[in-house]
Hints:
Elements: H1 2-30, H2 35-49, H3 51-56, H4 64-90, H5 93-99, H6 102-114, H7 121-138, H8 153-178, H9 181-202, H10 207-212, H11 218-240, H12 245-252, H13 255-267, H14 272-291
Amino acid sequence: MIPAILLALAVALRILSNPVANVVQKQLTNRGQHPLLVNFLTYLLLSVACLCLVAVMDKTALPPAFWWYSILVGIAGALGNAFLVKALQGGDLSVLGPINAYKSVIGMIVGIFLLGEIPGFWGVLGVVLIIYGSYFVLDTTEERFSWSLLKKPAIQFRIWAMILTAIEAVFIKKVILASSATIAFASWCFFGALFSFLLLLLYQVQFRNEVKKIQPADYRKYGLLVLCIGTMQYTTNYVFDHMPVGYALSLFQLSTLISVLLGYKIFAERDIRKKLLGAAIMILGSVIIILL
């Protein structure tokens, strides 16, 4: 009974923390802060919070697979989160959030090959509903649901973020299997900080100049962002440790409804009724995957 309650609590926290983090990321980039800097500082501050854990951890007991998959997690995570923040900088939260529903599809496909997690009939039906529901949300854009929609930079960034973070999710499960959910969280923070810093160097971001743009009023925003991202990732690891990745990613899509509501309330995004209809269909698909 207690494990089931803890799992339900972890899922609920994951569903709530993700869209709130997206709101804060969008607010910070709207204030002129560089997306790659926001990405790096998030990882860096989380890494500082994990120093005590790393100090007492027996690193010699970890198998080689842990380190290889941790590196892959760091690369995929840093790139994926960078694309996500960039997408939020110029796109509607209520549109970009539902696109993430396809993440469960990619996670299922990659999970089949790397984890041997084979979906059943109800799993496939749930995925179809998720895709169908996304049509209603994306059909509210100026380009409607069409190929021209894919030409929008924000949509392209979001799709790349979705693909990379879906692959990252499978690698995270590999890290968890080689260690634990807690150790995997620490490695996610440190390797994410490392590779997001390399991204700053690769794109020649003027670190000092960008840091100067951070105002005292932004400190609370960064604090909230770190809290949300940390909660999101740790609860993600906990859920991955107790159920297949593809099904877990599908369940996480319940946050779509929150993304739509936050986009409407905070950023005054329009066509809320059609977006809510699409989100409801996507949620139905997620529920079918989990219950059946």
